[in-house]
Amino acid sequence: MRIGIYPGSFDPLTNGHLDIIERARRICDHLLVAVARNSAKKSLFSIDERLEMIERCCLCERNGIEIVTFEGLLAEYCKKRSVNFIVRGLRAIVDFEYEYAIALMNKKLAPDIETVFMMSKGEFSFISSNIVKEVASYGGDVSTLVPQFVQQKLRERFSAVVV
After folding, report:
1. Where are the domains of the chain?
2. Catalytic positions, please?
3. What are phi and psi of 91, to 5 degrees?
């Protein structure tokens, strides 16, 4: 069985993330969507809220997708779960240098696990969770950037902000 993992913070989940999840699912038998627990990083949404966003937007159980959380080294988590490859999305050339360094380190830590880079669709190439949060915090329209459920959660989170 080919097991893939798509790790990230998903704070919040974007349409770009969903595109990578859908495409990654086609190249593996089982896909782990892994929400990273990083206590050093200030998140807008809790781990549970991010898990709910993914669950609501992916129909996971029917599609061979499992949502998990992990803390620590991704390579170690992959070994424990018998992961064959790590999926990473690339939006633009600036992503490549950062992702390439991480892929090389993961390869050093876990030589049997491959990293697969997927280019985002052009329409999603500028979307990042940080940009989405910034626009939503000022009441901007993010309806084409995130699923409707996520848009609703962003509205609720930023409802106290006056534009």
Report:
1. 3-125
2. 17, 41, 91, 129
3. -90, -45
Q: Which CATH number fits domain 3-125: 3.40.50.620, 3.20.20.20, 1.10.443.10, 3.55.40.20?
A: 3.40.50.620
Give 12's Cβ-side CA count (13 Å radius).
30
pLDDT tens for the chain, 163 residues: list them.
999 999 999 999 999 999 999 999 999 999 999 999 876 778 999 999 999 999 988 865 567 899 999 999 999 999 999 999 999 999 888 789 999 999 999 999 999 999 999 999 989 988 999 999 999 999 999 999 999 999 999 999 998 554 4
- Are 47 and 76 within 8 A, CB to CB? no
